[in-house]
């Protein structure tokens, strides 16, 4: 399994690339911008992009979708409750950010428990974690018998996602974190949409929104 990461876009979004060592097929999670940088990164690592996955529909997580899809024809995937954000500059907040963007639409929408297979060896399981957006989702990946979580803007190192945007809910977000993320063992690695990585145990003990 191949796991790589980089910071992209004006808001410093964490973009992750997960690839199959056997087929060299790869998924990019949250390409918030800098599509050319992502494409060059894939080329340097001899990876073929087959999936574009958005953990939610805000502009800083979907900004590179169109360019990547145009260049690779990769399948674009988002949770069914955030799908409309991809094609609406108002809903994805780009209308208010100075970088208006709409489309392309999702090729596939997913829901709780769905699995996204990349190549022969990578399986990402969808965990619906609403609160930041109605269709916010996290992705579980098993590596050497342990789980790692890509959580988008649900949970950060020492903080949580904003809930003051349209469709946000503080109550839902806390429930998502407590019922869907904190149920994992302490050693579970957490890869957020912004800032440094963390673990379930660290957040359980020290995150001021959870203790």
What does this structure look like?
The mean pLDDT is about 95. This protein has a single domain (about 1-205), classed as Ribonuclease Z/Hydroxyacylglutathione hydrolase-like (Metallo-beta-lactamase, Chain A). About 20% of the residues lie in helices and about 30% in strands. The chain starts with a strand and ends in a 5-residue tail after the last helix. With about 210 residues, it is α/β, with parallel strands linked by helices. It is built from five helices and 14 strands. The strands form three sheets. A six-stranded mixed beta sheet has the order 1-2-3-4-5-6, with helices on one face. Strands 7-8-9-10-13-14 form a six-stranded mixed beta sheet. Strands 11-12 form a two-stranded antiparallel sheet.
Biggest beta sheet attributes: 6 strands, mixed
What is the CATH first-level class name?
Alpha Beta
Order of helices and strands: EEEHEHHEEEEEEEEHEEH
Count of DSSP E strands? Answer: 14
Walk across the major sheet and give the strand order.
Answer: 1-2-3-4-5-6
Second-tier CATH architecture: 4-Layer Sandwich
On the 0 to 100 scale, the average pLDDT is: 96
| CATH topology group | Metallo-beta-lactamase, Chain A
């Amino acid at each position: 399994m191949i796991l790589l990461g980089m910071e992209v876009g004006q808001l410093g979004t964490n973009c992750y690339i997960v690839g199959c060592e056997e087929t060299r097929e790869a998924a990019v999670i949250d390409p918030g911008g800098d599509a050319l940088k992502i494409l060059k990164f894939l080329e340097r690592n001899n990876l073929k992009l087959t999936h574009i996955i958005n953990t939610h529909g805000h502009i800083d997580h979907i900004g590179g979708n169109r360019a990547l899809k145009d260049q690779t024809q990769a399948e674009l995937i988002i949770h069914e409750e955030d799908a409309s954000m991809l094609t609406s500059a108002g809903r994805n907040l780009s209308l208010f950010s100075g970088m208006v963007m709409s489309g392309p639409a999702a090729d596939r929408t997913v829901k709780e428990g769905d699995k996204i297979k990349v190549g022969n060896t990578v399986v990402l399981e969808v965990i619906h974690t609403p609160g930041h957006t109605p269709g916010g989702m996290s992705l579980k990946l098993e590596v050497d018998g342990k789980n790692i979580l890509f959580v988008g803007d649900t949970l950060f190192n020492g903080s949580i996602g904003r809930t003051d945007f349209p469709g946000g809910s503080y109550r839902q977000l806390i429930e998502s974190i407590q019922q869907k993320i904190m149920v994992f063992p302490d050693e579970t690695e957490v890869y957020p949409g912004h800032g440094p990585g963390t673990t379930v145990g660290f957040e359980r003990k020290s995150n001021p929104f959870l203790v």
